[in-house]
Design a protein that fits this description.
Helix content: 40-55%
Number of strands: 13
Number of domains: 2
Strand order of the largest sheet: 3-2-1-4-8-6-9
Distance between the termini: 55 Å
Strand content: 5-15%
Shape: globular
CATH architecture of the largest domain: Alpha-Beta Complex
CATH superfamily of the largest domain: Spore Coat Polysaccharide Biosynthesis Protein SpsA, Chain A
CATH class of the largest domain: Alpha Beta
Largest sheet: 7 strands, mixed
Length: about 375
Amino acid sequence: MEQLIIYAVFWLLGILFLARIPYCFESADKTVSPPSVSIIIPARNEETTLPLLLASIKKQRLKPAEIIVVDDHSEDRTRAIAEGAGARVIGAKPLPRGWVGKMWSCYQGAEGARGAVLIFLDADTVLEANGLQKIVDTYRRTQGVLSISPYHATEKLYEKLSAFFNIVMMGAMNAFTIAGDRIKPTGVFGPALVISREDYVKSGGHKGVKDKIIEGVFLPEQFKKARIPIHCYGGKGALSFRMYPYGIKDLIGGWSKGFATGAIQTSIPALIIVVAWIVGCVGVTRHLIQTAVTGSAPVMIPWAALYLCYVLQIYWMLFRIGRFQFYTALLFPIPLLFFILVFARSMILIFLKKSVQWKGRSIDTTRGRGS
């Protein structure tokens, strides 16, 4: 009974760290002219995903001042597709020593941009109907840095295995807790970042995280030093993506790339809360299986009830983060086991092998040096 109470308390922690997820909204005030916006898209071998993003931008009611695609030495039709869609293409210069490819591309895009507001979007994101208007209106209200977690539009069965990565990634940000804006976010979301040109220059932008695999856990320190506030929002209704659509190998490689690094950089209180919640997920599963095997119905019933509580809670979390069916939550031990195994793999790659492979490059995790 004591363990049941402990895991019930751990269940409550899940409500604390994902209590509220604000979404981008369209302002009712149409009298204020929107700022000039430069959309910057770093792209390396994105001939499959880039057309979807560019088509979604074209459909927006609010038009950006310019669309910049930074072609990071692609070996496919990325450049031709971008030029065909009317985007301004910047060919990335050779990767300097000490830089990671995406940081170098974002930095060059910002250097060449003319807009007052810079919107960095990963090539695999897609703007929803009137999404750009919602993003710009939200930025105008919040100012500072607006970071958006795209709504994860999963399609194939294996993509549901990302469930716990999505939950943990958002929960560890300290941005969606029950305390609301009283707690400052400890990270930003790399796929979508909105910032004024002035604030980007003042903070040092991507140059300050040039050697980082995952910029989202290191950029906040720069913004903090420059006294630029950070605001994190969910992307539902404004921005979405399919993270790893090319198969389970792609999914494993993507999450392995730097998730362990992000976990190490998470604030201690947030890390403790998230880890305790995961321990609760593991514990309630283990006890339910154990009581089912022993066949003790009076003991099994409370564990089954608590398991159902976790199922409903996980579905509540996933419903706001991405397109996950109820069975993903009902069978949560499967994506949970996947999360644990891939997280362990990430730890090995980053802290033992000290290198990861991504988009045809080997990245030295000790210094972030791309080759």
